[in-house]
Amino acid sequence: MTAATSLHWQVEGQGDDLVLLHGWGMNGAVWDQTVDQLSQHFRVHTVDLPGYGHSAHLQGENLDDITKHLLEEAPKQAIWLGWSLGGLIASHIALKAPERVSKLITVASSPKFAAERPWRGIQPKVLQDFTAQLLDDFKLTVERFMALQAMGSPSARKM
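Request: output the structure for the sequence above.
Response:
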């Protein structure tokens, strides 16, 4: 039996190709309601990034690794929409393979998350504490992270 080497993709709708990339701690299912609407106008591709959801068996050590995995199976040219970490990845793809990107959309994203002069990102201490919390109690830390993501959402109580 061989290990799966492909990312988990779902495709719905007709029209121009639109790739949706989820954020950290999520998977492609985070886009389900959005896909219902967008698939009326686009051919929507959702993917579980390496290490997440149905693609948990694949590893992406860095942005170049993740980009390589994505471009192996992504449409030859598409609109790329990324949320948070997904936006960072989509931006990286636009820089490394611009011929594959017809448009780039990022939502609640940043080209760099960690603060480093002069960049005003997340302070290293906060990232170190978050890493320690993940190592101490991964499940609880992810649940808290998801609760923060859902704050203000009308469907937050359903999560």
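The mean pLDDT is 89.
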